[in-house]
Amino acid sequence: MAVHRSGPLKQQNKAHKGGRHRGRGSAQRDGKGRLAPKTLSKKVRKDLSRVDQRHRASQLRKQKKEAVLAEKRQLGSKDGPPHQVLVVPLHNRISLPEAFQLLQDRDTGTVHLNEWGSTHSFMLLCPRLKHRWFFTSARPGDLHTVLDMAKVADTILFLLDPLEGWDSTGDYCLSCLFAQGLPTYTLAVQGISSLPPKKQIDARKKLSKAVEKRFPEDKLLLLDTQQEAGMLLRQLANQKQRHLAFRDRRAYLFAHAAEFVPSEESDLVGTLKISGYVRGQALNVNSVLHIIGHGDFQMKQVDAPVDPFPLNPRVIKSSKDSGTAMEICAADAVADMEEDLKVLMKADPDKQESLQTEVIPDPMEGEQTWPTEEELSEAHDLLKESSKVVKKVPKGTSSYQAEWILDEDGESGGEGDEYDDIEHEDFMEEESQDEGSEEEEEECETMTIGESVRDDLYDEKVDEEAEEKMLEKYKQQRLEEMFPDEVDTPRDVAARIRFQKYRGLKSFRTSPWDPKENLPRDYARIFQFQNFINTRRRIFKEIEEKEVEGAEVGWYVTLHVSEVPVSVVEHFKRGTPLIAFSLLPHEQKMSVLNMVVSRHPGNTEPVKAKEELIFHCGFRRFRASPLFSQHTAADKHKFQRFLTADTALVVTVYAPITFPPASVLLFKQNSNGMHSLIATGHLLSVDPDRMVIKRVVLSGHPFKIFTKTAVVRYMFFNREDVLWGHIKEPLGTHGHMKCSFDGKLKSQDTVLMNLYKRVFPKWTYDPYVPEPVPWVKSAISSTLPEVDME
Description:
- It is a single chain.
- α5 packs across α6 (about 170-180).
- This protein is an alpha+beta fold and about 800 residues long.
- It contains 19 helices and 27 strands.
- The strands form three sheets. Strands 15, 16, 17, 18, 19, 20, 21, 22, 23, 24, 25, 26 and 27 form a 13-stranded mixed β-sheet that branches. A seven-stranded mixed β-sheet has the order 2-3-4-1-5-6-7, with helices on both faces. Strands 8-9-13-11-10-14 form a six-stranded antiparallel barrel.
- Residues about 315-335, about 410-460 and about 775-790 have low confidence and may be disordered.
- The protein starts with about 25 loop residues before the first helix and ends in a 10-residue tail after the last helix.
- This is Pre-rRNA-processing protein TSR1 homolog.
- One of its GO terms (molecular function) is U3 snoRNA binding.
- One of its GO terms (cellular component) is nucleolus.
- It is found in: Nucleus, Nucleolus.
- Its main location: nucleus.
């Protein structure tokens, strides 16, 4: 039987390859048991059955719910700190004493009153709800006090007016609180029952519509009766807590009592004993303590007295009056505190964080030997050789004519052939004779255009000097917008001296610039991280995983703070709240902080760079003079002379190290003493190597053009300045120069030269911020719009 055999021309098809569509078994056989770590971790999820996946998801949900419930139960319980509520009235018609009177219900629980100056506060203990509250309020006109107390408050209770909601002052306060970061908040309306019954429903509808702009999907509670006050307390106790990142990683304390013990050497400095509840994280006595508005200090020891506000106080049963029972309870608590006072821990000098904020610079550290004469002569000869350019020119061409021949074309423009040397020199002589009168006429015209038209009818209360300064700022800002970075070359000072710190760059984006070059002396005083991101990650990881030895959250402690000036306790006695934050490692040291900010729409006044501003950065409050620069991803960032309104800018200042995230608020002190909000943002980084480059643009005008070459004037005004730079050749003695370009030049074009130098902020850091003038509605109504209730 014959068998068919394929010949050499048989078609050979490719074998089938499974590729990524092959089964799991074939993939395992090909891999021979070798699997990547990522594949191993993913395999566990794939091997789970659908029932196991559902069970795993339900377990995760249950864990999250338990964590939220545990946080709710701890806050305000007998083992946790009291639930601190900051009451903020948003309208001048709101009566704060009436609201406090409704919340101080003797039937609800025990009330402990306390008054510090004009700051009213009280402690409410409610055993029936197993909760204790600490209600406090700030002075209505003290903005910085409201912001400082909002940093440590668990809940903010906003009181609204039934007709308008909030006035311009309240709107300004809300803008600042939203920019800083709001904790848990609740809205309550006071006085709606005083309206006629027919208007109550319409008022609530209009108020809800107006509130939606700032508080979408938030319910309004009433606060006119004892029953409504009880419902409000239950709402406060059952709310889910919102977290502020800058305070969750640090221990902080709101002072309930303070005592000053002067030192033996001086009565102006001594030991300050601060008593309060530990919040946030566990408090270590070896860490540095920051008192807002006063600076950084060290602790000597931490005492653990008896809690003066226990949830279940001991009350004598024979007492008939509840007020008498409360007094006996408070007296017993104070007696127990004196008897049972015990030292929790003392500072260890070997482990205690140092208060060193600056590096002591060594003046001999950067010394280097001066080069010898031989080295200078060799460098000069090398520079001459490298500056020589070889060109192909026709025979008989002079060196002057060779200067005008371009490398690209090998010849100059069409008109250049007719431009004779003798004619050029005669023309330059005539031009130099007529130059002086033309410059004087042009200078006179420039001064006439820049002169502002003033109105002679001024009000008597207007400060003419302040008005003139503000007008000058507006003119400078407008000129900066029209002609960015453009400056006039001075006539009285040589340009080579005036711009000796500047340099030219071929490309602002790609040209190299060493960040360690020509640093100021202030940079020898600051600290710098080798890798700031890794340090921040390591510190935050230690906070989450490592247990800190010290006072736990919820404990009532007394901190012994050493070397504190007496002014701190004087401010506390006048009613200013005393708030202390425990610093993370390195946060007491000075460095360069970069913050991203955007202009606040309620303020339109020009803000110039290096003006003194007031900063709220996280938990700190200080004064400094910042730089403004563009927010880009490059290694060099262009300096901005004014704080612009359309784009976000980066603010650079000398300040203590703060680990982000942290909110940033910028205030400016006006001539009347008020502080106006000008910008809001967040902390970007702590990086002294971030280069802020200032650009200066010098302009000149071409008056003799030869296609791609021209004679330029008015950029410089003497021959020496032209010879100082890398310009081919000066013409005459009045600053005229010969320039070549890579394209055709027109008569209406302007010749620009960009010069750059690195700038640094001023060292004006001051932790003390003066108290502002209280808010005045008429003073801020011009910059903040009224709330539209319709």
